[in-house]
Amino acid sequence: MTSPSDDIPDTAPRPASPDDAPPVSPSEALSSAAAPSPPDRPKKRHILLRIDAFIDSTVWHAGFRLAEWWEDVTIFFRRFRVRGWKRVVFELMGEGMTWGTVGAVLLLALALPAFQETKGNWLAQSDFAVTFLDRYGNEIGHRGIIHEDSVPVDELPDTLVKAVLATEDRRFFDHWGIDFLGLARAMTVNARAGGVVQGGSTLTQQLAKNLFLSNERTFERKIKEAFLSVWLECNLSKKEILRLYLDRAYMGGGTFGAAAASQFYFGKAITDINLAESAMLAGLFKAPARYAPHVNLPAARARANEVLTNLVQGGLMTEGQVVAARLHPASVVDRAEVTAPDFFLDWAFDEVQRIAAPFAQHSLIVRTTIDMSLQQAAEDAIESSLRQYGESYRVAQGALVMIENGGAVRAMVGGRDYGESQFNRATKALRQPGSSFKAYTYAAAMEKGMTPETVISDAPITWGRWSPQNYGRSFSGKVTLLNAIARSINTVPVRLAKDTLGIPRIVALAKAFGVETPIRPDKTIPLGTSELTVMDQATGYAVFPAGGLQARRHGLSQILNYDGDVLYDFNRDAPPAERVLSEKATASMNYMLTQIPIIGTARKAALDNGVVAGGKTGTTQSYRDAWFVGFTGDYTAAVWFGNDDYTSTNNMTGGSLPAMAFKRLMDYAEQGIDHRAIPGIAPPPAPSKNDKPAAAVAKTDENALPPLVRPRMLSGDVTRLLKALGTRFETTPPLDIPPATPGKVASATPKPAAAASN
After folding, report:
1. What is the pTM of this model?
2. Where would you tag: which of 297, 410, 592, 666 has the fewest CB atoms within 10 A of its CB?
3. Which of 12-26, 264-278, 351-365, 625-639 is the most confident on average?
């Protein structure tokens, strides 16, 4: 008998065992229990959980592997761990490497401005050979290396090369631009002597300064000099560096390069000089003005004797080899002391290279605007002022630029001694102008419609966190603009800039006046905190006697080639002057500025013989800079006194030494000429016959220098006659001269003018 189950066929479906079912995760069980989904559709949550699990496991394994790796690295470096005194050494080395890296990055940042100087053709100036003439056609100097054939080092006398190296750089062939051993030796010698006795600059550093930089004594210049020295060593051979140094150095007497100096001092080629002459030339590199043999032969021979001693001490020669040169020192050609306007020539040479760069010919003759009589008077005004008052005021340098009405630069003094320092303080030194900048602020006020009688408040004022103070730490209440500029009140121009004008208007006007140095648009600008050059100030103030027109400052009248062809003419090629200040505003400014030498801060600038002068003083913080910028109807002059190292003077103001130097120069310049009136100012009455000349007037100050007397070349009547003849020749039409035939005299008939034919 069978059971009921036996009747069921084997093929019938049986219920699935729990072991036969696929594993189900708890999340799937919950999701299926909540809302069952079709079996053929992927479950989104299932996919997201898988992704999350993958990320979680991956990150965990990565962190685990990283920890294992770091443990291995730590175990490896433990082998190099030091203890005790060795750890101190390694710690110091590590700190040194860290700070060394910081220093290297800093040096790289400092090197970038230096390497900007090497862009372009940095030897381009050797392509120019320029002969300069003054305004009357007299030769005054040369610039350009091509005038003297550069002699290769191998062809130079051995005595000259040894003398230069023994004196300037004994380790020249052993260093890479900077001689740290020589620098340490120089510092030691100077410390023992209590002053600067020995220099630490290498010959390469001096060449870098001559090629790319100026003689300005600043930390920035020394940094650039160091980097450029290394750059020169990497790009030039030692012989090339030595040749360039001997070709470019200033050697006194207006000469550049040893070849030119040999011709000037000894009248012979540099290849023919002997040991005594070589020693004298080598001694000029240190101070060419002091040791120039045509100026001070005993000093030059004493310096040459020091060079001979350097040769012996350096082991380059023996005492027996130099004894003949000691017993028979060099003799020089008898020449009068040369007074070339070197600062002006350097500036004019830069102008020539800028203007004549497109010309095919670079051997040129340039007629300049300089007047050597006025140049000598300007140099005397600066030097005599420093000689008389420099010690009491603790001031060592001065600069001056003089421009005639029309823009011609008649005189330029870039420093006290070109031989000591070729840095041109008239065109390159940036110094704060102080209150002399206020003229641009007041000019903007006059242009806006104000007048000298406009009343404004002299009271405390705050601009942001800045509260300017007056010189006397006091305030005057309501004052006129005339009174404010005459007394150089500080709060008034600041109030004008803040409430009425705005800084951009003042900056734009100064640029329109001819100020080329970039001006910082700062709220302190009205008080002259943005640095300018002496040339900028002379150019800007020249607008006032020009009646509000641009000064058109220039130093070159004509550029010619040696065939006589005029390649450039200022009157022909320069653009006409544009008006930058209205006639009414100019007249108001001239009235206020001409009152300053009468009732204001520049009473020592008042001129003799009734000549009207105007101008403005300027004194910067801590008495570092003192200015007077002034003008007459004929000339404008900017005068600056200060120190190269920015140290303070002894309470020197613009109304003291600068104003006195201005008066000394202008009293000389205004003698024997027909005076032009300042626009808007009535001319002074003509002097009577009973008036005594300035030279005959008794001095009121016992310490004052005697006034300069300008020599009269021609009488006034002859001068006027020659001017009339010149004008007539310019307006007379040219003659039409037919070709002459044999036996017959050609007749000259005036050629009709073009206007007459119409």
Report:
1. 0.69
2. 297
3. 625-639
